[in-house]
Amino acid sequence: MPGTGPEAPAQGGRDASLPARAKIAVTAGRVAAAVSRTAGRGSGSVIGGKVALRLDPDLLAKLADHLDVVLVSATNGKTTTTRLIAEALRAAGPVVSNALGANMPAGITAALAGGGDARYGVIEVDEKYLAGVARDTHPKAIALLNLSRDQLDRAAETRMLAEKWREGLQDTEAVVIANADDPLVTWAASSCRRVVWVAAGQAWKEDAWSCPACGGVMQRPGDDWYCAECGFRRPQPHWALSGQHVYDPQGAAWPIQLQLPGRANLANAATSAAVAAVFGVAPQTSLQRMQSVTAVAGRYDVVTYQGRQVRLLLAKNPAGWLETFSLIDGPPAPVVLSVNALDADGTDTSWLWDVDYERLAGHPVFVMGQRKLDLAVRLEVAGLNFQVVDSLAEAVRAAPAGRIEAIANYTAFQQLRRAVAG
């Protein structure tokens, strides 16, 4: 999945300690990235990382060797959680991170190559690559947030992915910080030696009705869950999100005051506080630092476009759309929906039928993007009033008064960002 890449490389003394082959690989990667940027083909982080890894396949391990590493993986929320953890750990020292989303080995390598004299590496990892990146980077902590259906044309089915995590992480020395409310995550983490359980919640439950241990039907009374057939059940959490507070293992309640909207981000902050505590950063300090985060790679940005306020929101799969619908302004706020099906999005759009678009009743809805007609059919079945448009500009001209909520999947979101910037 392409990303926007790391910040500009910091030239630090740490490069001098790398072996000769690694130095050459890092330099070649930076040159390739610079050429890509000059040619207008993006940040160059992915191509730069690919070139560097071609010259030195062990480069990622060498770049991570001096860092205390945190890995963050999930279907949803990993970019935001990576950003929150990075901000929290800056209280203890300099941080290098791929917090803008280049989360496969090439993008991760490019980010760490720009790390200068960082002490901590906070790394977002695509779900498919988690076990391999963990082997290379020897993390001190791994945060596992959630698993749900996403890009099924390229990624494994969720239960298969949970099994890959379980097998790939069972020998890790890292402290695993895992969401106790997600049975798939719990199954994956329960093979690990050191687990900190966080009750972070799970709004989307449609991928977790069968037991990942035995295949039996999961019982889900209230917030609890268990399998009556094999006894697999929700572990007792060490940290718990309750309303606007997170409770630590000693039972102390710490207020979460974010500028980011929605319950999902409260859950991300609760997990981030648990991760920061592994590194000795107290909840009061870490949560205070998280207050400074206002947007993540353009997500949640409110921009002025053609004289109208537009809020940019990313939703890539049914679980993400469900969370996004919970935080938009109520009717009659106008809503723009944009869906593509390019390689980075996943070419299978059957997931559109799993999204509860009926929640948009009462909103004026405008539909755009490469797969706008697929989306239009889904909204027609949902009984919504909508208009198909060719561009954000057309939607803005037709939208009634009020802030416009623009929700898009991955590449469609990047197109919206370019539109409002242009």
What descriptors fit this protein?
422 residues; alpha/beta; nine-stranded mixed sheet; six-stranded mixed sheet; 17 strands; 35% helix; 17% strand; disordered N terminus
Radius of gyration: 21 Å
**Main sheet record:** 9 strands, mixed
| Helix-and-strand structural type | alpha/beta
Distance between the termini: 24 Å
Discrete helix count: 14
Strand proportion: 15-25%
Could you write a compact summary of the structure shown?
This protein has 14 helices and 17 strands. Mean pLDDT is 91; it is low at 1-12.
Describe this entry's structure for a reader.
With 422 residues, the chain is α/β, with parallel strands linked by helices. 35% of the residues lie in helices and 17% in strands. The protein is built from 14 helices and 17 strands. It has helices at residues 20-38, 45-55, 59-64, 78-89, 105-113, 130-137, 158-169, 183-189, 263-278, 283-290, 318-325, 372-382, 392-398, 410-421, and strands spanning 68-73, 95-97, 120-124, 141-144, 175-179, 194-199, 218-219, 226-227, 239-242, 245-247, 253-255, 302-305, 308-314, 335-338, 365-368, 386-388, 404-408. A nine-stranded mixed β-sheet has the order 2-3-1-4-5-6-9-10-11, with helices on both faces. It has a six-stranded mixed β-sheet with strand order 12-13-17-14-15-16, with helices on both faces. The protein has a two-stranded antiparallel sheet with strand order 7-8. Helix 4 (78-89) crosses helix 9 and helix 6 packs parallel to helix 7 (158-169). The longest helix has 19 residues, at 20-38. The chain is globular, with a radius of gyration of 21 Å. Mean pLDDT is 91; it is low at 1-12.
